[in-house]
Design brief:
It contains 14 helices and 15 strands. The strands form three sheets. A seven-stranded antiparallel beta sheet has the order 3-2-1-8-9-10-11. Strands 4-5-6-7 form a four-stranded antiparallel beta sheet. Strand 6 and strand 7 form a beta hairpin. The protein is elongated and about 90 Å long. The chain starts with a helix and ends in a 19-residue tail after the last helix.
Length: 529
């Protein structure tokens, strides 16, 4: 058993030390420069205020032009359960702007369809010229240059962009030297990648997530590659730490006077760094494995919260407030929205009007400047899990270990976590928690007992993201960088010792058999066991 422990660590280390070193280095880069994304705040900042004059054609006309037709009433013939091959109605309805012009965008799980809100004409495939105009307007009128059309490149692997492909890449002459990615379906800017992100990204997220295997022949097995490398790395780290503890003299010393048996510089430091950073090395590579949700271990079975039931049914154009009326109501209050999104809550049609850092709830007659009445969302929430009860309700006025916000450049930084919020706990088999934005009643987080385990095994172990720790910066930075440096040193010393062993192995295979017998006492004190 002892021999196998050494052999497993030795050969996994030789195979994976370079990968581990790249993971540690790229992880530090990602602390400060993330994978390119367009956050909701950035997207709204690039849009002009919507204007009521000349806007807009009725929703029913726009839906018809988009190819969705009239959206049927719940339970009527032609609903998603009885459509006889007809496409279901869109899940989201938005009024936004493209190149300064109002545009409806309707989306379901498969496609994004845009309609000119002034003329009611469906927008066809977006041309390079239209993409440049959209990007230039989004960037504030700075010079813009068309780069290329891509299906998918190093910065657009996200599946959330699939409905927008192909994408037009436009370089804009702004302070960040951004490349803006424009949807080929709607003309919207859907991603920005600054020069800093494009430069550091190659040695940051692109390297860390092994995106070298994305977008080519190995793309279908990218997930499996990451999972199995992470498993091998975890086993290598665990066996190495076990050997390191076993061979360290906590009491007494070896004949050399040291607590480590290794005399060689690289082997000795590999041992010491393994003891210093070994636990973090194990937790980081293991939590990286957990980030992949291997074999769907964090997917709960059973009923999920029914968002359509919470809404009270699908959106109906005949009952929804018209865009022109909503914009007029906002202007009467001196408010300017940059995007409208229609929704239902408990059967009532409303519009979420969004501006930079602000959201207003609007119905057919008024603008709600205060929080939504509690009874509205509390009654509707009972329909989320009809066979379960709400057993606990908590009002959140500050972030906690389950509900918190991260910086925009981090992996989850694009997810908005408004406060105050309400957390509803259900007594279903999965112990489901649903968190609502108290102001609008929007569902902002859903978790179950499986996902809460994932919160610890991935998010916490990988980035120590408890709000109390994130609030202690730069102490948090020092902790992360110090142990990442220890892990990097551990990996690099492993690379050197592994290379030396392979070189000796190769040399030994080439020697005559008579030369292989070593003289008595000729050990290699600098070798790792």
């Amino acid at each position: 058993m002892k021999r196998w422990l050494y052999l497993v660590h030795r050969w996994l280390g030789i195979a994976l030390c370079v990968v581990m070193a790249l993971w540690f280095f790229s992880g530090v880069v990602m602390m400060y420069v993330g994978y390119p994304k367009l956050t909701p705040a950035e997207r709204l900042a690039g849009l002009p205020p919507l204007q009521a004059p000349g806007c807009c054609v009725p929703l029913a006309q726009a839906l018809q032009a988009a190819g969705f037709g009239a959206v049927p009433k719940p339970g009527a013939a032609g609903t998603s359960a009885d459509r006889r091959g007809q496409p279901p109605g869109p899940d989201t309805w938005r009024l936004t702007s493209v190149a300064g012009e109002p545009r409806y965008v309707f989306a379901d799980s498969r496609r994004q369809v845009a309609v000119d809100a002034r003329t009611g004409l469906r927008i066809g495939p977006v041309s390079p010229e239209a993409a440049v105009a959209a990007a230039r307007h989004f960037a504030g009128g700075v010079p813009a240059r068309y780069v290329e059309q891509v299906k998918e490149d190093a910065w657009t692997h996200s599946r959330a962009l699939d409905a927008h492909r192909p994408l037009h890449v436009v370089a804009v002459d702004d302070a960040a030297s951004n490349h803006l990615y424009v949807s080929g379906a709607t003309g919207e800017v859907v991603r920005d990648a600054s020069f800093t992100e494009r430069s550091w990204g190659w040695v940051g997220a692109w390297l860390h997530w092994l995106y070298i295997f994305r977008g080519g022949a190995l793309n279908p097995i990218w997930t499996d590659i990451v999972i199995w490398l992470s498993i091998a790395g975890t086993v290598g780290a665990v066996t190495g730490f076990a050997i390191g503890v076993k061979r360290w003299r906590f009491s007494g010393r070896y004949k050399s006077g040291r607590r480590t048996p290794y005399a060689g510089f690289m082997a000795r430091w590999h041992h010491v760094l393994g003891l210093v950073g070994g636990v973090l090395c194990v937790t980081w590579v293991f939590s990286g494995l957990m980030s992949m949700n291997p074999w769907k271990v964090f997917n709960a079975s059973g009923p999920k919260p029914d968002r359509v039931a919470y809404a009270g049914g699908p959106l109906q154009a005949a009952q929804a407030p018209g865009a022109a009326a909503v914009l007029a109501l906002l202007q009467q209050q001196g408010l300017q929205a940059r995007e409208l999104q229609w929704r239902r809550l408990g059967g009532v049609h409303e519009v979420l009007a969004q501006g930079p850092g602000q959201t207003w709830l609007v119905d057919s007659t008024r603008v709600y400047t205060e929080a939504l009445p509690v009874e509205r969302w509390r009654t509707a929430a009972q329909a989320l899990l009809p066979n379960a009860r709400i057993v606990q309700e908590a009002r959140l006025t500050a972030y906690d270990r389950w509900y918190y916000s991260r910086e925009a450049h981090t992996m989850g930084g694009h997810v908005e976590r408004p406060l105050p919020a309400r957390r509803l706990q259900f007594d279903d088999a999965n112990d489901t928690w649903v968190t609502l934005d108290e102001r609008t009643g929007a569902i902002v987080q859903v978790s179950d007992q499986h996902r809460r385990v994932d919160r610890w095994l991935f998010a916490f172990l990988h980035s120590f993201d408890l709000p109390v720790l994130l609030a202690t910066r730069p102490a948090w930075d020092a902790w992360m960088v110090f142990f990442s440096a220890a892990g990097l040193g551990l990996s690099l010393t492993g690379v050197v010792t592994g290379w030396r062993r392979l070189r000796r192995k190769a040399a030994g295979l080439m020697r005559p058999a008579s030369a292989l017998a070593a003289p008595p006492g000729a050990g290699r004190a600098g070798d790792l066991a």
